[in-house]
Every structure is written in C-alpha cells, then in structure tokens.
Design goal:
Blueprint lengths: L1 H18 L9 H9 L3 E6 L8 E5 L2 H11 L6 H4 L7 E7 L9 E9 L3 E9 L15 E7 L3 E4 L1
Parallel strand pairs: 5-7
Antiparallel strand pairs: 1-6, 2-3, 3-6, 4-5
Length: 156
C-alpha cells in the first residue's frame, strides 16, 4: 500500500505544479499602481433602463452622473454600489442597448486595451438564441463601466 501512496503523492504534486499559472509580478509599488490604473470595472448592470435607443455616453463629472442616475430612475437601494466613483481619477462609460422585445439580452465587455493615448473598449451585445426560454417583456439593458481618466475613449 505504501508504493501506491507514493505514486499518488507524486501524481498530486506534479498535477498541482502543472496547474499553476505564471503571472508577471510587479517589482515595484509604482508598476503595480500603473497596472491597477489600467483596469476597468463594471459597477452596475440593469435590464430595465429608460433609454430606448442604442447609445454610448461618456460621463466625466459627478453632475453629469447625477443627471444620468435621475434620468434612468435608478432605485435608491442601488446608490451604494454606484456612487463611489472618483471622477477625478476615472470616467464612466454608460452603454445602452436600446429597447429589446424580451428578456435574455445582455452586455459584455469583450476587450479592454490601453495605450499611451487612448482606451479601446470592445462591447459585445448578447442576444438570446432562437428557442431560448425568455420572458415576453420589453427590456432596455445597460451597463456602467469605470475606466481610467485622461485618454481618448474608443468604444467599439
């Protein structure tokens, strides 16, 4: 039984090491901070928007964001998750799919790329497949994406 235990132990060790990923580790605090600034985050998604046409809005100030929240009639219970955006350091991309005939539609950030001069954001619209079970109700999906400030923003 001991040889079986040894073989199992060796197998588990090899399996564990082969499954590890090698991610670059920032060598200084400055490079770690730079990498963090390049990330985006989805701070809010909803299926019941009031904006009926497909559009993208870039929000750069608290005042513009407050106006958008009012226009969308976002419930006060959701404020905690969206009101923590620092517009001195970040912009907000608000992507609206427009009015859709049923549930099952969604928005996904497919690609996020940062250069010295611009931020490219590729957004994919998810459409329910033919035959999917969906609710027969009008929806207007949208998403709020927080990105670093100070560069040209290209949304595809």
């Amino acid at each position: 039984m001991k040889p079986q235990f040894r073989i199992l132990s060796v197998f588990l060790i090899l399996f564990t090491y082969s499954c590890k990923t090698s991610l670059p580790v920032a060598s200084t605090k400055e490079s770690a901070q730079k990498n963090t600034e390049q990330l985006y985050s989805i701070v809010y998604k909803n299926q019941q928007g009031t904006i009926k046409t497909k559009q993208t809005r870039i929000i750069t100030t608290n005042e513009a964001f407050t106006n958008l929240i009012t226009e969308l009639a976002i419930p006060v219970t959701d404020y905690e998750t969206i009101l923590n955006i620092d517009f001195k350091k970040h912009n907000l991309v608000a992507y609206f799919m427009g009015e859709k005939p049923s549930s099952g539609f969604d928005v996904k950030v497919e690609n996020f790329f940062v250069t010295d001069t611009k931020i490219e954001l590729t957004i994919t619209e998810i459409i329910p497949a033919k035959g999917d079970l969906v609710a027969n109700v009008l929806t207007a999906p949208y998403v709020f994406i927080v990105i670093p400030k100070g560069k040209e923003i290209v949304v595809k």
